Amino acid sequence: MCLIKGLLWGWNGKKRKPYGGATYASNGVPDVTADGMMALCENVSTDFSNIEVGELLWMSGHVGIYIGNGQAVECTPAWKNGVQVTTVLNVKPGTGREWMKHGKLPWITYDAAGSASSSAAADTKTSSVSELPTPGDI
């Protein structure tokens, strides 16, 4: 959740600041749990044949973001590097995770070209999924 909320709260790359320099609970994005974030999503589905880039992926207590090509980005302090790209088994076979649901975050603009951008606030830098921070940036 810290990766997703940090970006929506205005992540600006300040490595030594909480949430990369973002302002806590800003841009109309609440500080909620993974389950709470899924509850705020629109067009929630268990059918992964129609998933779009930028959608929230959910399993009980954990979320990730779909980045396309059958992959997700997710983070947890349990991993040594904190952030990993994993295979979404609901979309692409291989080694990875099977998610329970996916949905559209209300602060993200989704388009038919397969990209997503944050619309959380006008004064926040818009981040596309391809501009996600690397593990060293967080």
Strand order of the largest sheet: 1-7-2-3-4-5-6
Poorly predicted spans: 121-138
Form type: globular
- SSE arrangement, N to C: HHEEEEEEEEE
- Largest beta-sheet details: 7 strands, mixed
What do these coordinates show?
There is one protein chain. With 138 residues, this protein is mostly beta strands. It has one domain (32-130). The chain is built from 2 helices and 9 strands. Strands 1-7-2-3-4-5-6 form a 7-stranded mixed β-sheet. A two-stranded antiparallel ribbon has the order 8-9. It is globular and about 35 Å long. Residues 121-138 have low confidence and may be disordered.
Supply database-style keywords.
138 residues, mainly beta, 7-stranded mixed sheet, two-stranded antiparallel sheet, 9 strands, 10% helix, 28% strand, globular, disordered C terminus
Which SSEs are present, and which pair or pack?
Layout: H1 2-8, H2 34-40, E1 42-45, E2 56-59, E3 62-68, E4 71-75, E5 83-88, E6 96-97, E7 101-104, E8 108-110, E9 116-118
Parallel strand pairs: 5-6
Antiparallel strand pairs: 1-7, 2-3, 2-7, 3-4, 4-5, 8-9
In short:
With 138 residues, the protein is mainly beta.
